[in-house]
Structure formats: structure tokens, C-alpha cells
Design brief:
The chain is of the alpha+beta class. Helices cover about 35% and strands about 25% of the residues. The protein contains 15 helices and 21 strands. It has a six-stranded antiparallel beta sheet with strand order 3-2-1-6-5-4, with helices on both faces. Strand 12 and strand 13 form a beta hairpin. About 40% of the residues are buried.
Length: about 600
């Protein structure tokens, strides 16, 4: 349909614009007028079809040359103004494009200005006055010659190069309170001159082009703001938790206006665990990106409470409904424990994760899909599964597996099969390489949706670097905790931090025993630091106090704060955990566990 309109415009143009005007009767005159209106209808539709600046101006050139003119020269305001503010003066024009009809290639118009050349327009020149007036003008009008010379440069300066008579029109591109640019239309000397009706045609072409340019600028500005908004809400960097390596990619849709609400995150949790999240807010707009930012913030807050994945999604769903029932999102939330080598996953309508096993087998994780976030009233379910050392988990949004010609499940199976087929080169390859390989499977062509990709390789935690005990809460528990700690540190060769660690363990365990009603968990983890975690079932988080000189207690956390490298406390769904870290001498550090 659009192709036939272009052909109609090219066929109609010469009849409307080139045919000589006669004094014939109404029946004779009706033909050219009808052709002119038909040409304008097709041409303006073509111009309005453009979605961006280049496409809009390309459609103008296609409509104008050769149907209406033999050459067109387009200058644009540099930079193009955004909003309704009035253009400042003096302003600058930049030569954007030139198009010359094949029949006019032999004309002496070869000395046109260089594309991209700049032209400064003070507000007192003839050109500036013409642009501010906003009305098309013939090239032979009195006082127009200087403006023509500025716009066409060398071509206008050589006598005899410009077509004689009314074969040149300058049509300003005038927006609301703004000069957007100008269009120069030329005809060969052997073609009839422009008429007064052609001036109206040029006016309509310029008006619709100005509207298209203004739309493209605003559209591009909104897309740029949205893209910036989304990128600032994504993690600037990923954490480096012990026992897992992470890498990510984010690709916006091929069309800038298609920025949406895809996001990913990795959040360290107590006990050296890490939460892995990927989500997608439905829709493509600044609103989608803003909602994405709010949901990501909510997830970070919920992760800080150390809730299981199904409860995180439940509370996220409740909060999303408060943002508005029209906002729907999908989300997959997983928790990896490098000590138990287990993975706990819950899904809210999101494409399932893919696990590449160390032996090269690719597996689509079977997790109940649940309903999208924002639907409300739907229960979510957490599923626990093994996470073998050396396996790689891929979390992604539907833009990676879905396209116009491929449904989601076909794309997921294709992703799994592709990973499995290339497993010999990907199982041990750096995650950055794996991410690139996955994205390479997309192939050329425009993408209709954003893509967020988060990969995690499970290194696990060496069993000989973990010591774990459950201690009954009674007055002698602190003494037993000191003995167990001393035994573990001597086994690890950490005698240099034995005394200080034993003191801190005693203080933290004593505080836990005061409030615990169930066994207290004591865990020591050796990496490049020595980490001690004491968990109990009391939700009361301790706070550091400054004891008076005569007080018998109240100095425990003060000692921890003074001696430990770092310390902290966090509520759990079953109580709390208090932890501290001790610096290990460099020559004794265990470091990050090596990948298989």
C-alpha cells in the first residue's frame, strides 16, 4: 500500500507542478487541481509515517524529488531545540542532506555545500527574517538573493548555475516558537517554473515535515531520558560474593523508543549466600522504567529481611498493587547457598532459568511459574534443588528467547540446546565469554524488546573452610564456643588471630544466649577473611552501648567494634544473625575457591 502511494506521488507530481497553467474553463482546470491535492495527500502521509528524524526527512526527499522538484537541500537547526522554548539568536543551521534527481545530475549543481557544514544566522540577516516569517518564498523575490547565497554557498556564487526565474523555493521549517530549519527546492531550466499554487504545495510539505521533525526530536528525547533512567537504575557493578562468580549484560531494544522495564540484581545475604534476581515490567515507556526502579528498590529491601523467595514475591506483589493495578511485571528470585550447594527458586510468571551442568548438560529448571507481579491473590512456591559446583545458572528476560517469529518456549529450548551443544567451550569459559556467546545467538536484525541477562557460576565453598555448630543456650555455652573456635583456628593455622577471635566469639555468643530459647548456631568461614556468624531465634537486634565506669556489663559490642575488621547484625525470618570479620595475614588467606 505505501509503495503504491509513493508511486502515485511520483506520477502525480509532474502533472501538478510542471504543467503550465492556462486560462481554460473550470472543467479543464479541475484536473491539475485534483492531481495536486492527490499528490499532497500521498506526500504528507509519507512524511508523517517517519518515526525518527532521518526517516522523516528521507520521506520528504522521496516525495519531493523528482515529482515536485529536481533537487532538494535541507538545513536543520543545530542543535534541534527540545520543548516549547523560543530559539535563541543567533542560531546555527547545519546542512543535513541533498538529493538531486537522476535527470538533473548533469546540471551545474555539483558545487553544493559540504554535508554537515554549519551556517550561523544572526537575527538581522535576510535569511533569519525569512525563517522567522515562516512562509515559503520564490528565489527571485526582492532581497532574497543573500539568503539563497548563504544556503547554497558556492552554487549560488557562480553566475548562471541557479535555474532562471521562479525555479527555486525556500520553505522554512517552522515549529512552535522555534526555527527548525529550511528546505530549498530547485527545478531545471527546461522544466516549467513554480507557480503560486506550487508555493502552497511547498508550504504544506514544509509544515508536515516540521511536525515530523518536532515529533522525532521529542520522541528521541523521551527515549534518551528513559534509557538513561533505566541504566541508572540497573546495578553499576555486581558484587563479588564468596563461592559464586557473576556476569551480566543489558541490551536495549534496537529501536530507541522501545526502552522498557527489564532489570537484574545480585544481593549478598547472610551466611555467604547471594540472591539472584531478574525481572521485566511489561510495556515500553518512561513509566515502565520508573516502575522497574521502584520494584527493584522494593526487592532490595525485602532481600535485606532475608525472606525465602516465595515470601519476597508475595510482598513484592502486594507493593506492586499499591503502585497501580495497571502495572504488571514478571520476576524470578533465586537464593544460592555456596556452603550447602543448594538453590532455592520462586517464579512470578517469568521465563524459567537455564542451568548448564558441569558435564555439559543443559537443563530448564522446573519451577511453578506462578502469576505475574501485580495480579494479586496468587500464592508463590519456592523450590529447592542442588546447585553443583561448576554449574552455571542463566537468568534472562523474554527479549532473549522471544521474537516475532519465535514463541517463548521455542526460544527457551533453542537456548538450552545451544548451550548444551557448545558446552565443551562454555562450561569452563569465563562468564564474560559465555554472555557474549549467548547474545551472539540472536543474530542480525532489529530486536523488539530489551534483554537483561544475569549469569552465575557456582564455585561453592570448600568444606574444609567451614566450621559449624549448634549450641544449647545455657551459661556454659560461651566457654564451649571458645574451645570449638580455638580448635578450628588451630586446624587452619590461624594462631595469629586466635586470641582476639576467641574473645569476640565469647562476647557475641554470651549475648545470644541471653535471649535465645532454641539452640544457637555458630559458624566460622575462612576465605580471604575470617568470618564468624552467630544466629539465634530472638528478633531483637543488639545495639552498641557506652557503659559507665561502674557498670559490670554493656561492653561486649564495644569490644567487637574496636577489635573486628567489620561487624553487623541482621534480622532473619527466624530470628537474627550477628557477624564479624577478622583480617587474616596475607600468607594464610584461603582466597576465593578455585573453579573446577
Amino acid at each position: 500500500m505505501e509503495h503504491s502511494r509513493v508511486e502515485a506521488a511520483r506520477d502525480a507530481g509532474p502533472q501538478t507542478a510542471a504543467g503550465p497553467q492556462t486560462a481554460a474553463g473550470p472543467e479543464t482546470a479541475a484536473g491539475p487541481q485534483t492531481d495536486r491535492l492527490r499528490y499532497l495527500d500521498v506526500a504528507t502521509r509519507q512524511i508523517a509515517r517517519g518515526m525518527d528524524l532521518d526517516e522523516t526527512l528521507r520521506e520528504l526527499r522521496r516525495a519531493a524529488v523528482p515529482a515536485f522538484a529536481d533537487a532538494i537541500v535541507i538545513h536543520l537547526h543545530n542543535p534541534l531545540p527540545v520543548g516549547d522554548e523560543k530559539s535563541a539568536t543567533p542560531f546555527v543551521l547545519q546542512l543535513h542532506s541533498i538529493d538531486i534527481a537522476p535527470e538533473a545530475q548533469n546540471a551545474d549543481w555539483s558545487r553544493m555545500p559540504v554535508l554537515g557544514s554549519l551556517l550561523t544566522c544572526p537575527d538581522v540577516t535576510e535569511l533569519a527574517e525569512l525563517l522567522w516569517a515562516g512562509r515559503p518564498t520564490f528565489g527571485d523575490e526582492p532581497g532574497i538573493a543573500p539568503a539563497v547565497a548563504e544556503l547554497l554557498g558556492p552554487t549560488a556564487s557562480v553566475p548562471g548555475t541557479l535555474p532562471p526565474g521562479r525555479r527555486l523555493i525556500i520553505a522554512p521549517l517552522q515549529g512552535r516558537h522555534r526555527v527548525l530549519g529550511t528546505v530549498v527546492l530547485l527545478r531545471r531550466p527546461d522544466r516549467p517554473a513554480f507557480t503560486g499554487d506550487d508555493l502552497l504545495v511547498a508550504s504544506q510539505l514544509a509544515t508536515h515535515t516540521a511536525l515530523g521533525v518536532q515529533k522525532a526530536v521529542m520522541y528521541g528525547h523521551e527515549a534518551s531520558v528513559t534509557d538513561t533512567l533505566q541504566r541508572t537504575m540497573l546495578p553499576s557493578s555486581l558484587p563479588e560474593p564468596t563461592g559464586v562468580r557473576l556476569a551480566s549484560r543489558y541490551l536495549p531494544a534496537s529501536k530507541t523508543a522501545q526502552v522498557g522495564g527489564d532489570w537484574y540484581d545480585a544481593i549478598p545475604l547472610p551466611g555467604s549466600r547471594v540472591a539472584l534476581i531478574v525481572g521485566d515490567v511489561m510495556g515500553h515507556s518512561m513509566t515502565s522504567a520508573a516502575i522497574m526502579g521502584q520494584l527493584r528498590t522494593i526487592v532490595q529491601t525485602l532481600a535485606g529481611l532475608d525472606l525465602p523467595p516465595d515470601e519476597v514475591l508475595h510482598h513484592l506483589d502486594e507493593q506492586a498493587q499499591r503502585l497501580g493495578s495497571e502495572h504488571i511485571a514478571t520476576c524470578l528470585y533465586a537464593i544460592y547457598d555456596p556452603i550447602s550447594h543448594r538453590l532455592l527458586v520462586a517464579n512470578a510468571g517469568h521465563p524459567p532459568a537455564v542451568l548448564l551442568h558441569p558435564d555439559g548438560h543443559g537443563e530448564v529448571l522446573r519451577v511453578p511459574p506462578g502469576a505475574p507481579i501485580g495480579v494479586g491473590g496468587v500464592a508463590f512456591e519456592s523450590v529447592e534443588m542442588p546447585a553443583p559446583r561448576g554449574a552455571t545458572l542463566l537468568l534472562y528476560t523474554d527479549g532473549l528467547v522471544e521474537s516475532r517469529g519465535t514463541d517463548v518456549w521455542t526460544g527457551i529450548e533453542s537456548l538450552r540446546a545451544g548451550l548444551q551443544a557448545s558446552a565443551h567451550g562454555l562450561v569452563s569459559a569465563p562468564l564474560e565469554v559465555l554472555c557474549d556467546r549467548v547474545l551472539d545467538t540472536l543474530g542480525p536484525g532489529d530486536r523488539d524488546d530489551d534483554i537483561a541477562l544475569l549469569t552465575a557460576r557456582f564455585d561453592g565453598f570448600p568444606p574444609d573452610s567451614v566450621a559449624y555448630w549448634f549450641l544449647e543456650p545455657h551459661p556454659l555455652t560461651a566457654g564451649r564456643a571458645r574451645r570449638l573456635t580455638r580448635r578450628a583456628l588451630r586446624r587452619w593455622g590461624l594462631d595469629s588471630v586466635l586470641d582476639s577471635t576467641e574473645l569476640l566469639v565469647s562476647e557475641v555468643v554470651t549475648n545470644a544466649v541471653r535471649f535465645a530459647s532454641r539452640p544457637v548456631a555458630l559458624r566460622l568461614l575462612r576465605t580471604d577473611v575470617l568470618r564468624c556468624e552467630v544466629a539465634d531465634d530472638s528478633p531483637q537486634v543488639p545495639r552498641m552501648r557506652h557503659a559507665a565506669p561502674g557498670d559490670e556489663g554493656g561492653r561486649g559490642l564495644f569490644l567487637v567494634d574496636q577489635i573486628a575488621r567489620r561487624w553487623g547484625a541482621r534480622r532473619l525470618s527466624t530470628g537474627k544473625v550477628v557477624w564479624f570479620e577478622q583480617q587474616i595475614p596475607e600468607e594464610l588467606r584461603g582466597g576465593r575457591p578455585e573453579a573446577p
